[in-house]
UniProtKB/TrEMBL annotation:
Key words, A-Z: Coiled coil, Transferase
Catalytic activities: RX + glutathione = an S-substituted glutathione + a halide anion + H(+)
EC number of this enzyme: 2.5.1.18
Family (UniProt): Belongs to the GST superfamily. HSP26 family.
Protein name: Probable glutathione S-transferase
Domain GST N-terminal: 3-82
Gene Ontology cellular-component annotations: cytoplasm
GO MF, one annotated term: glutathione transferase activity
Keyword match Transferase: yes
GO annotation, biological process: glutathione metabolic process
Length: 217
């Protein structure tokens, strides 16, 4: 049987891009269904009735939601280039960092831009980013995944690309070379990976979007 694979997404979404990167890493073909987030399709609401969000991957009629869960599903179903480590302990470590990025780091970073660089928000974000900076320093590798990107790098796509657009719009500098040299280098390496580069949405579109989002039109 040929697999039927559809990705309900939205090109500017960092979460959708995560899934696209994982699919492309493995060379998996899929149908891209672009959603209008302000007017969600009946299919999206049917497939993700709990969160009503993209991405949703539908594999032979079965919906899978939440970007990190989808990536694990992709890695379980399709062999080829691994996205998570094979070793159970290393796998748990990768899951830990991906969760840290979503639960602690990204919310702190978003707060900085929504508060227009308020001191307390900046201090909190610096603290979380320093943890990732230290992790890269300890690992001493090009990526969180080692020589190649893995779940953790993909989970941090927001820090590598979207944050730069937010910095430009708000004029708040957060991830700077003097404070976070390892993270800056990592971001450069990440966005220059062939598979990542081909998926990232154009920067101009993000700038427009973030101008509206931060009320800086
Ligand atoms: N935790 C979710 C977050 C997904 C998410 O926030 N998606 C946004 C697009 S970037 C969305 O669909 N927003 C629509 C809405 O909130 O109504 C994941 O990892 O997939």
């Amino acid at each position: 049987m040929t697999d039927e694979l559809k990705l309900y997404g939205y090109a500017r979404s960092l979460y959708v891009c995560r899934v696209k990167i994982a699919l492309d890493m493995k060379g998996i073909k899929y149908e891209n269904v672009e959603e209008d987030i302000s007017n969600k399709s009946a299919d999206l609401l049917k497939y993700n009735p709990v969160h009503k969000k993209v991405p949703v991957l539908v594999h032979n009629g079965n919906p899978i939601t939440e970007s990190l869960v989808i990536i694990e599903y992709i890695d379980d179903v399709w062999k080829g280039v691994p996205v998570l480590p094979q070793d159970p302990y290393e796998k748990s470590v990768a899951r830990f960092w991906a969760k840290f990025i979503d639960d602690k780091c990204a919310p702190a970073v978003i707060k900085v831009f929504l508060s227009n660089g308020e001191q307390q928000a900046l201090a909190e974000a610096f603290e979380q980013l320093q943890i990732l900076e230290n992790e890269l320093k300890v690992k001493g590798t090009k990526f969180f995944g080692g020589d190649n990107i893995n779940l953790v790098d993909i989970a941090a796509d927001f820090l590598a690309y979207w944050v730069g657009a937010l910095e430009e719009v708000t004029e708040v500098k957060l991830i700077t070379e003097d404070k976070f040299p390892k993270l800056v280098k990592w971001a450069e390496n990440f966005i220059n990976c062939k598979v990542v580069k081909e998926i990232l949405p154009p920067r101009e579109g993000l700038i427009e979007y973030f101008k509206k989002w931060t009320g800086k039109e």
